[in-house]
């Protein structure tokens, strides 16, 4: 358990450090694929999901240190659930980039510069640490539904900015092409269904590892 938790701790420190550094770089003139500089970078789910994953990593770090120092027996379940929500969000980013945006913009472009971390390494660090290393508690179906919240919240904001306000009135452009050919309703169903399946997949793998490691 000590080696497993130490590895998870290192991964969470990497998540926190890299995400903070990359986000800060947007305010210092650096940009990634589809990422604008400064505060405008926050309109993208890539940035938001990685920040959520970073916050979850920062929250879980002290609890992992407490367990490693023998001051606690396990990571509190609510903290693990929060880490799960962040993991589900960045995994959705990874899957969307690989399956949806990759064919549109090109995978090499989407995995260049800071996007290599936000689209690939960041999600993988969160996924591996939560699924294989942070397995103190079994994740219930009810708790796993919380993983869909980031997608629902962002989707509501995106729909409002793109469809209701519109770019011509100061809203967002349809930079994710979710309303291509007027099929916004298809995108809503596909994205939320995809997020649900991702959440269930992460839950299933996490619980399988929990069962194996806690026999």
Overview of the molecule:
- This protein is mostly helical and 215 residues long.
- Helices cover 71% and strands 0% of the residues.
- The protein is globular, with a radius of gyration of 18 Å.
- The mean pLDDT is 92.
Task: Give a short overview.
This protein has eight helices and no strands. It has helices at 2-26, 45-68, 77-105, 107-110, 115-133, 141-144, 149-165, 184-213. The radius of gyration is 18 Å and the shape is globular.
Low-confidence stretches: none
In total, the number of strands is 0
Provide the β-strand percentage band. Answer: under 5%
What gyration radius follows from the Cα positions, in whole Å?
18 Å
- Look at the structure and give the mean pLDDT: 92
In whole angstroms, the N-to-C terminal distance is: 13 Å
